[in-house]
């Protein structure tokens, strides 16, 4: 049997960091990974890719939506024949996983019934969860269908915020244990061992073509100024859910990670194919004019769609 673990959580909550810890903890086993990005470019796959792991990269939508569900199903069928012991699925930050059971039931005859759903871990952003959960139905579904919930970024939140988030989660899913972390630093094996995968009845996912937020991929030829990049990100961040990617600058390659207005630029030691930045908008198509204005104002128009 192949034990399936699903990782959910809003954009930038810490799912990729959790996945990296899991891959390290299970490195002596035969592992498969599915990394799902909402945007056209799969940034997270670059962060977790390593030798000896079977990986599928699914971009440009949620694997639970009709937009790319067929590709997800194909990947699951292919990976069922690879002799895996564990399969970790990192869903996109806007994924509604409530139809996961339906998907697995629908392919049992094509996978020789090799998959054993072992549980879902939902990672919560302690800073932004309360503000967003009532606006985005997918976030509520992520919590409701979780076997365990990690309240991450505790170092950035107050004790009152953490208590409010924890109480809200327990009200939505009383049976799921709640773990409080920073940088997802926790005993992942303990979480895995204590997962209670009580099967919840599948429901129709809220992920549809119509509910997809606008996403943009920005590129630039050659190096761009680091200071200008910082100013550009500050300009557009208030209208975004998530910004991430890589950029070539005069001080070296950098990884970009922004959740709403919380912006981080980290030195990236590896080679990159060029500047490529994914922006997931919270203001719809209006983000397009904001991107153009910010690029002209801070980067001489060098970042373009």
Throw out a few tags for this protein.
2 domains, Hypothetical Protein Yjia, Chain: A,domain 2, Rossmann fold, 10 helices, 26% strand, seven-stranded parallel sheet, alpha/beta, 12 strands, five-stranded antiparallel sheet, 305 residues
What does this entry look like structurally?
The chain has ten helices and twelve strands. The model has no long low-confidence stretch (mean pLDDT 93). By secondary structure, the chain is an alpha/beta fold. It folds into two domains: 2-193, P-loop containing nucleotide triphosphate hydrolases (Rossmann fold); 215-299, Hypothetical Protein Yjia, Chain: A,domain 2 (2-Layer Sandwich). Helices cover 30% and strands 26% of the residues. It has a seven-stranded parallel beta sheet with strand order 3-2-4-1-5-6-7, with helices on both faces. A five-stranded antiparallel beta sheet has the order 8-12-9-10-11, with helices on one face.
């Amino acid at each position: 049997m192949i034990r399936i673990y699903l990782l959910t959580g809003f954009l930038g909550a810490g799912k990729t960091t959790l996945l990296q810890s899991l891959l390290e903890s299970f490195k002596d086993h035969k592992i498969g990974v599915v990394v799902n990005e909402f945007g056209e470019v799969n940034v997270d796959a670059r962060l977790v890719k390593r030798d000896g792991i079977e990986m599928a990269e699914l971009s440009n939508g949620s694997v639970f939506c009709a937009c790319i569900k067929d590709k997800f199903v194909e990947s699951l069928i292919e990976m069922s024949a690879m002799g895996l012991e564990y399969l970790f699925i990192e869903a996109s930050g806007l994924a509604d996983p409530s139809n996961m059971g339906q998907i697995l039931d629908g392919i049992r005859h094509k996978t020789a019934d090799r998959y054993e759903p072992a549980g879902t871990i939902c990672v919560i952003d302690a800073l932004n969860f309360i503000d967003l959960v009532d606006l985005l139905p997918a976030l509520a579904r992520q919590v409701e269908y979780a076997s365990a919930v990690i309240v991450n970024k505790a170092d950035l939140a107050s004790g009152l915020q953490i208590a409010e988030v924890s109480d809200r989660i327990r009200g939505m899913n009383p049976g799921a244990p709640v773990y409080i972390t920073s940088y997802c630093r926790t005993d992942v094996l303990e979480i895995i061992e204590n997962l209670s995968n009580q099967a919840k009845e599948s429901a129709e996912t809220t992920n549809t073509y119509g509910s997809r937020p606008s996403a943009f991929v920005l590129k630039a030829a050659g190096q761009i100024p680091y200071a200008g990049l910082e100013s550009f990100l500050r300009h557009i961040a208030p209208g975004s859910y998530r910004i991430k990617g890589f950029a070539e600058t005069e001080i070296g390659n950098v990884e970009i990670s922004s959740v709403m207005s919380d912006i981080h630029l980290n030195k990236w030691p590896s080679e990159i194919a060029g500047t490529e930045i994914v922006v997931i908008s919270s203001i719809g198509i209006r983000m397009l004019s904001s991107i153009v204005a910010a690029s002209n104002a801070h980067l001489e128009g060098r970042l373009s769609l």
